[in-house]
Write a structure and sequence with these properties.
By secondary structure, the chain is an alpha/beta fold. It has one domain: 3-Layer(aba) Sandwich (Carbamate kinase). The chain has seven helices and 13 strands. Strands 5-8-2-1-11 form a five-stranded parallel beta sheet, with helices on both faces. A two-stranded antiparallel ribbon has the order 3-4. A two-stranded antiparallel ribbon has the order 6-7. Helix 2 links the parallel strand 1 and strand 2.
């Protein structure tokens, strides 16, 4: 890997300074999931960037999914993954596997990795403090949840102590049901309720649909409605 010269490092810092000043002490939400989680090298690079953002004074909230790992574990126990309209059909047993993988293996793994590279993180799930309340999306998808409310206090408490919240995208209701929540939907709702400065979605697709079959890698919220309508 090519090493930057001192002059090049200085130029990088000079160019980054306005952004560091703009986002200092502001909240950004990062959604991390899908195939971006499969490579250990990529995972370490992403967590390194998140730690760097935290160290320069940006309050990072990490929201993760883990679809491929859920499918892998379901396969190992002989359960077939079924998707309808891009959402995993989730019966009671699958919901338990989702909770195990997201709030257990993946969350603890990311928290440990962040700690190993110099950051501080605490794992949370949408069930902690009833952070993500949900109800059934419909009868077809089973325990796939539609978010009804977000309690931001657990997230703000963790941020206040200087830690990076690592949030698993599962929800709950008042009857002890666990819901599989789409990580993009969870991240967007959390970002909105936190009044975050930015929402960054790490994905392996080209971007948001734009005009003339193009894709957008960046957009302001007020532009999204028009872009979606025109695509």
């Amino acid at each position: 890997m090519e090493t930057l010269t001192v002059a090049q490092r200085a130029n990088v810092l000079i160019e980054a300074l306005p952004y560091i000043q703009k986002y200092n002490n502001k909240i950004i939400v990062v959604k991390y999931g899908g195939n971006a989680m499969l490579s250990d090298e990529l995972k370490k690079a992403v967590m390194g960037d998140i730690v760097l953002l935290s160290l320069i004074g940006i309050k990072v909230v990490l929201v993760h999914g883990g679809g491929p790992e859920i499918s892998d574990l379901l396969g190992k126990i002989g359960k077939k993954s079924e998707f309808i309209d891009g959402l995993r059909v989730t019966d009671k047993e699958t919901a338990e596997v989702v909770q195990m993988v997201l709030a257990g293996k993946i969350s603890k793994g990311l928290v440990g990795l962040i700690g190993n590279i110099g950051g501080k993180a605490i794992g949370l799930s949408g069930m902690d403090g009833h952070m993500i309340k949900a109800k059934k999306l419909d009868d077809v998808h089973g325990f796939v949840g539609e978010i009804t409310s977000i309690n931001t206090q657990p997230i703000l408490d963790v941020l206040e102590k200087g830690y990076i919240p690592v949030i698993s995208s599962i929800g709950c209701d008042d009857e002890d049901n666990v819901y599989n929540i789409n990580a993009d939907t969870a991240a967007a709702n959390i970002a909105g309720c936190l009044k975050a400065e930015s929402l960054i979605s790490m994905t392996d697709i080209a971007g948001l649909p734009g005009q003339r079959r193009s894709f957008l890698s960046y957009s302001r919220c007020k532009c999204l409605r028009g872009s979606a309508a025109d695509s």
